[in-house]
Amino acid sequence: MIKLNRKKKKKKSHVPFRLNMLFFVVFMLFSILILRLGEIQIVFGDDFKREIERTDDVTVSNPVPRGKMIDRNGKVIVDNTPLNAITYTKYQNTSQKEMVDTADKLAKIIDIDTSKIRDRDKKDYWLVKHPKKAKKLISQKEWALYDDKKWEYKKIYQLQLDRINESEINHFSKEEMKATAIFKKMNSGYALAPQIIKNKDVSAKEFAAVSENLENLPGVDTTTDWERKYVGGDTLKSILGSVSSAEEGLPKEDLEKYMARDYSRNDRVGKSYLELQYEDVLHGQKAKVSNKTDKAGNVLSQQVISEGNRGKDLVLTIDTELQKKVEKIIEEEMWKAKGSGNTGLLDRAFVVLMDPHTGEILSLAGKQLVRDKDSGKLEMQDYAQGTFTTSYNVGSAVKGATILTGYKTGAIKPGDTLVDEPIKIAHTPPKKSWKTFGRINDLTALKVSSNVYMFKTVIKIANGHYVYNQPLQIDHAAFGTIRRSFSQFGLGVRTGIDLPNEMSGFPGSETIPGKLMDLAIGQYDTYTPIQLAQYVSTIANGGSRIQPHIVKEIREPIMDKDELGPIIEEIQPKVLNRLDMKDAWIKRVQQGFHMVTQSGGTAHSYYNGVKYDPAAKTGTAEAFYYGSLRSKWGTPVMNLSLVTFAPYHNPEVAMAVVVPWAYQGSTGPAINGNIGRRVMDAYFDLKKKHESDKGKKADTNQPNQ
After folding, report:
1. CA–CA gap between residue 397 and residue 356 (Å, rounded)
2. Cα torsion for 90, 95, 99, 104, to the nearest 10°?
3. 71 and 319 in contact (C-beta within 8 Å)?
4. Using CA atoms, how far apart are residues 429 and 452, in angstroms rounded to an integer?
5. CB-CB contact of 425 with 470 (8 Å)
6. Alpha carbon 267 to chain centroid distance?
7. What per-residue confidence (pLDDT) applies to 10?
C-alpha cells in the first residue's frame, strides 16, 4: 500500500510539469502574436490603412463631334447629324459573365446587325456562357500545367477555342446572335471608356425601352452620338473624304501613331482626302472625365475635367454653287459627246478653276462613267480626285512653256520667224503641224498652234542641225533642260495642293530626237489637270508659281450655333518659285494666248463674242489607251485639253480642262472647248450674281433716311 501510494504521488507531480510547459509555450506564442500585432498596428498601421483606403484616378477621354466644312460663301458642306445612341461602359471589376448577362438582356430589347459575326465571336460568347463545358475542354494534366504556371492562360483559352464542337455554335438562336454581336462591341474598348453598341437606326421604341431598363442593365446608357452629313450629296464627295465608323475605329496601319496622340481604338478618324489631311484640326479636343475608383475597381465618384470642344471648322476655297454648275456642265457635255461616233473609250473629264494670284481652288471637278455591274448601264460618278491623282498627255496646251524655254535658252528670241514645214528625220515618219503655215513668228505659232515651230525650237535647244531626211544628232541633256524649265511652271512636279496622294506624272524614258520633239508639244510626258492649272496661272500672274490650296481658313467652332467662329489661321498665298525669265517674255506669251481666242486662233470659235476677254491655249495629243482587253501596244486615241485665263489684262481666274481618250480617229467632238466656254460663262455669270446679291444686301442694311 505504501509503495502504491508513492507511485501515485510520483505520477501526480509529473502531469503538472507537462501542463506548465504547454501553458508556457502557449504563453510565448501569444506573446509573440501580441508583439507582432503591436508592431503591425504601431509601426506599419498607417501604411496598411493607406493601402485599404487607396483610390485610383482613371481619366477617360470621350470623343466630340468633328469640325464642319464650309464653302467660301459660308454654306455648310459637311456637318454632323445627331443620333440616338446606346452605349456600354465596362468597369474595372466587371466580369465577363456579367457582361454576357447584360448582353443577353439587351438583345431582347434592341435589334442589331449580326452580319459581321465570325465563328471566333460566337466561340468567345459560348465559352463565357457555358463555363462548366468550357472547363471540361481542358484535361486535368493541362490544368495542372496551368496551375504550376508552366502554361499561360491564353494557351488554355486557345485550346478551348480550338476544341469547341462546331455544332455548339452553328445553331445559335436569333437572340444569341444578337447577344454575341453586343458582347463583341462591349469588349472592343478600355475599362471606363464608353463603347457604342448601336448608333444608327435606333428607334424611339428601342431608345425608350433601354432608358426604362437601365437599372437592370449595368454599364448601359442612352445618349446622343453623331455621324458625318455631306450636305451637297455627291458634290465634291471624293475630295471631302470619309470618316471611319465607330466599329472600324483606328486604321491598323496607323494604330500606334494615333494611340500615341491620345486616341482610343474605336475613335472615328478621317480615312481619305480632306478628312484625313486635316484630321488634327477636325478631330477636336476630347471631353475628359476623372473616375475615382477603390482598390476593387468600383467607381466612387466622377468629375468632369474638361467639357471638350467640337473640332475646328474648315472654310474651303470652293464655291459650291460654281462647283455644282461645273459638274453639271461636264456631265452634259460627256453624255452629248458619247452620242457621237468614235467616243467608245471616253469615260472621264476634268476641270480645275483657280485664282492665279492666291492659289485658291474655286472648283475642282471630275466625272467618270462607270458601268454598273448589275444593270450594265453607264453611270456618272464623282471623280474630282482624278484632277491630281491621274496624269495624261495633254498636247499643245504646254506650248507656252516651250516658247518661254526657247527664250530662256537663247534658242529663239521674241519675234523670231521659222518656217512651218514637214519635218523628216531619216528612217522616221514625217512630223508636221495640223496645217502647213510657212514662215511664222512666235506669236503666230501660239495662235495657230504650230507644232513645227516648237520642233525647230527644241532642236536648237539640243544643239541639233536639222537637214531634211537626214539623221539628226542632238545633245540628250536637252531633255533635262526642258523638263527643269517646265517644272518651274508646275509641269511634271507636284503642285503642293493640300490633299494627299498627289502624283507628279510620268516622264518618258527614251531620248531619241523624235521624243524630244514630242516633249515640246505635250505628247511625251504626262501631266495632271491640277498641274495644267498651276502652269497657266503662272503665266497669267506674270511668273509666280503659286501653291494651290483648297482650305482658305481654319476657324474656332461655336458650339450649338450655325455661325462662324473667330479665325485661327488664314492660309496665305505661297510662291513656290519665280520664273527665271524676263517679264517681257512672259507678257509676250500672254499676248500669244490672247491671240488664240481672237480671230483665226484655235480657240476663237469657243470664245467668240464673250465679254470677259479670255486668253487661252488648246491642246490635242495623240495618245494610247491601255485597257484590260486591248493589245499591249494600246489603242490610238486623242486627248483634248484647254487652258484659259481671264480677263486678259487683269486675270482673276485660270482654268484647265482635260478630256482623256476623247475620241478615236482624226476627228471628234470638241468637248474640251465646249466645256471650257460654258464653265467660264458660268464663272462670270455667277460673279455678277454674287455682286448683285451683295449690293442688295448692302441696300437693305442702309439706315432709313
Report:
1. 17
2. -170
3. yes
4. 14
5. yes
6. 16
7. 46
* Cα angle, residue 349 at apex, residues 347 and 351 outer, rounded to 5°: 170
* Residue pair 627/661 in contact by the 8 Å Cβ criterion: no
The CA–CA distances, whole Å, from 428 to 459, 513, 514 equal 16, 10, 8
Cell digits for 478?
536637252
Tell me: pLDDT of 262 over 60: yes
Burial class (CB in 10 A: 0-12, 13-18, 19+), 76: middle
List the alpha helices (DSSP H) in 223-377.
237-240, 255-259, 273-277, 279-282, 320-338
CA–CA separation, 291 and 56 (whole Å): 8
Contact criterion met (CB below 8 Å) for 676 and 642: yes
pLDDT for 287: 55
d(CA 23, CA 19): 6
pLDDT digits (tens, 9 = 90+) for 425-460: 999 999 999 999 999 999 999 999 999 999 999 999
Can you tell me the distance from the alpha carbon of 361 to that of 352, in angstroms, rounded to the nearest whole number?
A: 7
Q: How far apart are CA 395 and CA 380, in angstroms?
A: 26
How many CB atoms within 10 Å of residue 320?
A: 20
Band (407; pLDDT cuts 50, 70, 90): very high
CA–CA separation, 149 vs 139, rounded Å? 16
Catalytic residues, which ones?
A: 396
Residue 619 has pLDDT above 50, yes or no: yes
pTM equals 0.81
- The predicted structure's pLDDT at residue 104: 93
Cβ within 8 Å of residue 450, ≥6 positions away: 420, 433, 437, 440, 444
Rounded Cα distance between 445 and 179, Å, is 75
At residue 694, the pLDDT reads: 74
DSSP 8-class letter at 537: H
Domains and CATH numbers, the chain: 95-188 (1.10.10.1230), 322-692 (3.40.710.10)
Cβ atoms of 669 and 343 closer than 8 Å: yes
Q: What is the pLDDT of residue 63?
A: 66
Q: Supply 71's cell numbers.
A: 464653302
Using DSSP bridges, classify how beta strands 287-294 and 438-441 pair: parallel, antiparallel or unpaired: unpaired
Average pLDDT over residues 467-486: 96
The pLDDT, as a whole number, for residue 2 is 43
**Beta bridge pairs of residue 237:** none
pLDDT tens track for 200-229: 888 989 889 988 888 999 988 888 888 889
Q: Give the Cα separation of 476 and 474 in Å (integer).
A: 6
The answer for residues whose C-beta is within 8 angstroms of residue 112's C-beta and 6 or more apart is: 178, 181, 182, 197, 198
Q: How far apart are the first and last CA of the chain?
A: 148
Joined grid coordinates for residue 318:
470652293
Q: For residues 88 and 217, what is the distance between their CA atoms, to the nearest angstrom?
A: 9
- Per-residue pLDDT, 629: 45
Digit-coded pLDDT (tens) for 139-175 = 999 999 999 999 999 999 999 999 999 988 898 999 9
What pLDDT sits at residue 290? Answer: 54
Helical axes 583-596 vs 399-409, angle rounded to 10°: 150
pLDDT tens, 521-536? 999 999 999 999 999 9
Pairing of strands 313-316, 69-70: parallel
Average pLDDT of the chain?
87
What is the rounded CA–CA span in Å between residue 397 and residue 657? 10
Residue by residue, DSSP assigns 498-550 as SSTT----------SHHHHHHHHTTSSS-B-HHHHHHHHHHHHTTSEEEPPBS
Q: Where are the beta strands (DSSP E) in 514-573?
A: 544-546, 551-555, 567-570
Cβ-based neighbour number of residue 294 at 10 Å: 15
* Three-class SS state of 122: helix
